[in-house]
Design a protein that fits this description.
Elements lengths: L1 H10 L5 H21 L14 H13 L7 H27 L5 H40 L1 H4 L17 H19 L6 H29 L13 H4 L1 H16 L5 H29 L10
Helix pairs in contact: 2-3, 2-4, 3-4, 3-5, 4-5, 7-8, 7-11, 8-11, 10-11
Length: 297
């Protein structure tokens, strides 16, 4: 009875009304996008579910609830529960319209496993919206200027944040140039060279993700008032993302082969430049005793 009680309490909780309404709003979009993405030779709605609308809903809900008493995580769960109506409809429709093409034995197996499949589908839907909501809430909270600047200034007005994530950013700045240079200059034409290029990229891709997240965390770490430098997250973190989107869009419009390739290499370069400039400014204001200007940058 506990799950039923929790369901009843959530449905009657006014603080979750927006989360539930956003989840319900995704249902027609999920159905339409799943229909479009279904194979042409399939006459049914299709057995796959498009998650774009659910992911966007989770991000919106996480942002909305970031400064409210209700946790973004809980709101994301209820958004997923409401949005999972589309998942149930898609599965049931697909099952009903295709069950006649199977033997009686397989039909019995499908019917028996339907509740399990529905639970898994709803669970994955809730997981997507919950994680997206938590991520959006976490990012929004870290971007809050009041949280980033806290406490009175100490004796040294250049006291920096206690974050150590800059070390991951520094690692990327050191590693990226030789790996990208080796790959882009096509130095790995031999089998051994190709293997080295592949291994280098396999290492650089996850390192770039770690460095990107570390750059965001370090740039949004709390600083004492009067530190003289409040990094612009939109420049250091948003810049590389903007370059990726811009290059991908231009390459797609121009019909260039494999736009993601051009976009990811541009992202690597933009992230390296943003990271290098960030580390120089960080050293200038917090380590080298540079003059405090009180301006973001």
């Amino acid at each position: 009875m506990a799950p039923l009680r929790a369901l009843r309490d959530g449905l009657t909780d006014d603080s979750l009304r927006v989360a539930i309404l956003v989840g319900l709003a995704t249902v027609p979009f999920t159905l339409a996008l799943s229909w479009i993405s279904a194979p042409d030779d399939v006459a049914t709605v299709g057995g796959t579910v498009s998650g774009e609308a659910l992911l966007l809903a989770g991000l919106i809900v996480g942002y909305y609830y970031s400064d409210r008493e209700t946790e973004s995580r809980r709101a994301g769960i209820w958004t997923g529960l409401a949005g999972s109506i589309a998942v149930v409809l898609l599965y049931v429709t697909h099952t009903i319209t295709t069950i006649g093409s199977h033997s009686s034995r397989w039909t019995a197996v499908i019917v028996v496993l339907t509740p399990v499949a529905l639970v898994i589908g709803v669970g994955l839907t809730v997981l997507v919206t919950m994680v997206a909501a938590q991520l959006a809430g976490w990012v929004t909270t870290r971007l809050d200027r009041d949280r980033r600047v806290s406490g009175p200034a100490g004796g040294d007005d250049r006291t920096g944040p206690a974050s150590k994530y800059w070390k991951a950013v520094a690692a990327y700045v050191l590693v990226a140039p030789p790996v990208l240079g080796y790959v882009l200059l096509e130095l790995g034409e031999s089998d051994v060279g190709f293997l080295l290029s592949a291994l280098g990229m396999l290492f650089l891709v996850p390192l770039s993700i770690v460095a990107f997240v570390a750059l965001f965390i370090d740039a949004t770490a709390p600083r004492e008032r009067g530190t003289g430098w409040l990094p612009s997250v939109w420049v250091y973190v948003g810049g590389p993302l903007g370059v990726y989107v811009g290059v991908y869009s231009v390459a797609t419009l121009w019909g260039v082969g494999y736009p993601p390739g051009y976009a990811i290499y541009s992202f690597f370069g933009a992230l390296w430049l943003a990271s290098a400039v960030y580390l120089v400014n960080r050293h200038r204001y917090f380590d080298a005793g540079g003059s405090a200007s009180g301006q973001p940058g």
